[in-house]
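Study this fold:
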Amino acid sequence: MRCMAIDDEPLALAQITGYVTKTPFLELVSAQTNAFDAIRLLKETEASVDLLFVDINMPDMNGLDFVRSLRRHPLVIFTTAYAEYALDGFQVDALDYLLKPIGYTDFLRSAEKAFRQYKLLMNEKLSLPENDLTKLFVKSEHKIIQIDIPAITHIESRSEYLRIYTETISPVMTLGSLKSIEEKLPSAHFMRVHRSYIVNLQKITAIERNHILIPPHHIPVGDQYNEPFRAYLARHSC
């Protein structure tokens, strides 16, 4: 599960991010010290986040108002030093809340609860037969072309059109937006790294000077997308 943590207290934020890092089924996308930066990141990068750890009592915009402001609602676990805020959290459909100071045992219990809910949601979303989940049908000119999703190397946006590159067939042009096709791709393998590019993370052979190498293509990483991409690299580096 891809996670974001938001807390205005640096020590509390460091604790949550540390817990996320040590939990095998969680991946940290970003850690933010205020709600406005979190909103900006979610909107500008269209970052795919499955779970939010949000402090309720923050200045300027509190955690409740932050969650209410989101167009797409990931699963939410609130963190708070005040038990009386717990009921307010459930009014915005929070999955759980953690009372500070937070121990790892309590954190893991809530995280596992979120993971169970996430798997249920994914099973509902992916209710098609397993074989169908590896295929994508796109309209190109006067044909409908079947593309193997695992064979896609990257997707480029060109004005109102998409150019889909694969290992098996010539690039396919189709009408559409990166946002619309991103929703159809498995987030564990595909990431938006630029306003004009989505890449298959499994096809990356190298990264050089903020460019991704998927031979023979060099794909830039945009400034707005750099943080979640670097977080992915850190998570998968040795």
Notes: Helices lie at 10-22, 35-45, 63-69, 86-90, 104-125, 178-182, 226-235. The two ends are 20 Å apart (CA to CA).
